[in-house]
Amino acid sequence: MKELFLIRHGRQNSKLCNVDVELDEAGRRQAGLLGERLRSYGLEKLYSSKLIRAVETAEIINRALALPYEILPDIQEINFGGFTGLSDEEIREKYADFKKERSLHRADLPYPEGGECGEEVANRVMPQIARLCKRPERRIGIVTHGGVIRSVCARILETDQKNKLKFALDLENTSLTHLLYDEARDLFFLERFNDFAHLEGKPELLRSNFKTSLERF
Length: 217
Hints:
- By secondary structure, the protein is of the alpha/beta class.
- Helix content is about 30%, strand content about 15%.
């Protein structure tokens, strides 16, 4: 079995939707706590998306691990289309009809104005996951994004992408989603999802104290 740990990046320093910015102080704390936790996991290599918040998260984690590190193409966050750069309040006002339809979970809707849907995200990310599974490393960490993690899990569980937002209301920053890959059978298993034990007892670091989830608002 190969083991892949999908890591959501730490908290970014802006509440605007999907802007490419650095971590805030809480995000750096989250990444540091996860780095300490991962010391005993036996990871052999660390990857991240190209977005600043993912790169910085990986760099902080790697202070504790000192692993080979590589930026991986095509694992950046879902394209939020017209949501990008807007506040929660602006999204509620401008895209009320889209949000209402999306909340029903009847279809894998693309985000408005050229955004992606979950199927498109899975189609660009899974080839990279497959490539990593062919590498010699047995245990790797991948710092990526909430939309990516949800879409990957929906794909490997063979459920429709419209169901991806039913995997937890809040996907916590620096949470671990642990995948197993059986090479002989070419099968993935979801071992754990949204594991944020390293943040327990620190409510100020939880997402509910930073930003309303897309599902809640």
